[in-house]
Amino acid sequence: MIKKINMNIPTCKAASYPVLIGDDLLKRLTWMPKDYSQIVVITDHKVKKYYADNLVKLLIIKGYKVLLLSFSSGEKYKNIRTKNRLEEQMLKCVCDRNTLILALGGGVVGDLAGFTAATYMRGIAYIQIPTTLLAMVDSSIGGKTGIDTPQGKNLIGAYWQPKAVIADIACLRTLPKKHLINGLIEALKAFLIRDAKSFSYLQNNMDAILQGDVKILGHMVEKAARIKIDVVQKDEKDNHLRAILNFGHTIGHALELVSNYKILHGHAVAYGILVEAKIAELMGILSPKNFLIIEGILNQLHFMSKDLKKWDVNKIIQATTLDKKAKKGMINYILLKDIGAVYQYKNTYAHMVSDKTVKKAFLAISGARSYAR
Ligand code: GLY
């Protein structure tokens, strides 16, 4: 069964699009629009072998004119050089304004192909086809596109909404467990900030999820996608509410930076959730009981509190100041109030927290040394 959820951006009718979640969508191309002069499939070398070659064959059988472009997989290729190469290849093949890009892959492909679509001939259409759990529950939805620079992640980019998001959950069957957990953390984050019922569903179905049960994963993707869609519809350009999607990410991004991006994004966010939930507990916003529940589920996924010991807390705090979400040198945190709810003051969701409190939370969890109360 295919689930269809509509994204409606109130300020822009053209930016409203369907998010389809279903099994074998890449084999049944019923969602493919007809009215484009050319299709450009952008993917990475790994995904090319798994899905792109087959998709291109099917598109050609259906009569589409198709160009397949791929680049080396990994975050380190999400840069201006790869983007330039893609654009040059498209120009060489005389791709016009009526070209449709299919961004087939994980978050890196989605961000890079989306940004290429945003700037090619001042903006052409694209469809997000996420093949990882992380991309299905988070990065493919909401129109954030961009590339990394030596100064940091996603510092150059654009809001450019796709024409559709096609999440074929069959792709999850071949996804390595490490990457399944990577995406699972973003789903967990979504449930923690907005949906206590889905958090319980995740808790109760953890074994089946880790065994890759596609039916249960599909249900989880739908629930997480609904949360992201609702948030983006209310705040497309990240001016207020969309900040809540950043729960666990202030510390998570800092861990990615100090580990030189060796740690996967979702794994860094898992530790970020631990520290940021502890911050909320120390500030009297989250109950100790709820902190233990969150710690419990993360421990179950092998993100152990004591693992934090291997990082220097001062370096982590320093790295948070480089986050692009920091405003005027002030570091903001999303503070969890309950399982499924964040602390909000008027229309503000991101709150200043002193370095002292962050340090105290970090040391309290890792047990690195006793911390002053
Ligand atoms: N991944 C966070 C956002 O889309 O705003």
What is the strand tally? 13
Please, what is the CATH homologous superfamily of the largest domain? Dehydroquinate synthase-like - alpha domain
Mean pLDDT: 94
Helical content (DSSP H or I, runs of 4+): 40-55%
The low-confidence runs, each spanning 5 or more residues with pLDDT under 50, are none
3D shape: globular
Quickly give the CATH architecture of the largest domain.
Up-down Bundle
Give helix and strand order, one letter per element, not per position. EEEHEHEHEHEEEHHHHHHHHEEEEH
Regarding quaternary structure, what we see is single chain
How is the CATH topology of the largest domain named?
Dehydroquinate synthase-like, alpha domain
Strand fraction equals: 15-25%
Q: End-to-end distance, in Å? A: 54 Å
Number of DSSP helical runs: 13
Order the strands across the largest sheet as they lie in space.
1-2-9-6-5-3-4
| Total domain modules | 2
- CATH top level of the largest domain? Mainly Alpha
Named once each, the bound ligands are: glycine
What integer value in Å does the Rg equal? 20 Å
